[in-house]
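Example record for the data management plan.
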Amino acid sequence: MTRRFVQQMADGDAVDEVFLVADKQLRANRNGNLYLQVELRDRTGAMSARLWNAGEHLFRSFEAGDFLLAKGKVQLFQGALQMILSHIDRVESEKVELADFLPHTEQDVSKLYERLRAFMLKLGNPHLRGLAECFLMDQDFVHAFCKAPAGVRNHHAYLGGLLEHVVTLLDAADRLAPLYAELDRDVLLMGVFLHDIGKVRELTFDRAFSYTDEGQLIGHLVIGVEMLNEKVARVPDLTGEAFPAELLLRLKHLILSHHGTYEFGSPKLPMTPEAIALHHLDNFDAKVHSFTRDIRDDRNSTSAWTPFNQSLQRRLFKGGPSETAYAPTAEGVE
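Corresponding structural encoding:
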């Protein structure tokens, strides 16, 4: 029987499908009665769901990353679709098709990886090219890098998202670098490649997207520097020369400063031309991706605006027919 995916559901639809649990919470309403708040997802997207009058026993009967058979109804609430559940049952993973539940890039991963290799192996600096080779020869790293999402729920939060994000940035950096003669193109491109490598160990993505213990306790910036140190130690075997100390410092700085500001998790502010360029390129791609995703995924045709996005702290304008839209008069523009 063909399943109905999240993106196919509309206001008023009955629900009787298996979903992956991305998150769960036990909350209390104004009267102190407990209810279950869960985020249910499949490969097309996620939807918030509520089950009223749920107790501690039901809350503990499943975990994030489990599969649930959910029954209920879809309703439109404050501009967003949600499920009101009447019944849930845990389903064993052996009984589901995993490919139905994890979102993945729409691009060809093998072609993205070949573009990545082309950029890295054509670097003019022999030390940076040797460093790239050390990473690309590590098949475990390559496998994880090509599969990892770029995040759990924000930009590029799907399998292959990290690779897609990095290749887009490499394309952008390659086109912009000739406009700024003071930028070291090779350093910038290597910084693009390295800036999020720690996410292959920060995140777990075999089923639900979440954080590893290492990711929670250390984070991908520090993990990335550790991974860089491990690979730099092997570069002299390829080049026959010691890796330049200042070049290594510049690469570490690119990783540690790419979030741009202290409030967004950077232990250091960008202090080189390549670092500030990387920060703004990274932020640009992440924000444009988030905006276009929210607009594309909002299926409420009754409003020209998306629901409020907590991470962006705003609603987004979708546009569309409007009675107040400007139209020139027969006499022309006033």
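Summary line stored alongside the record: Residues 323-334 have pLDDT under 50 and may be disordered.
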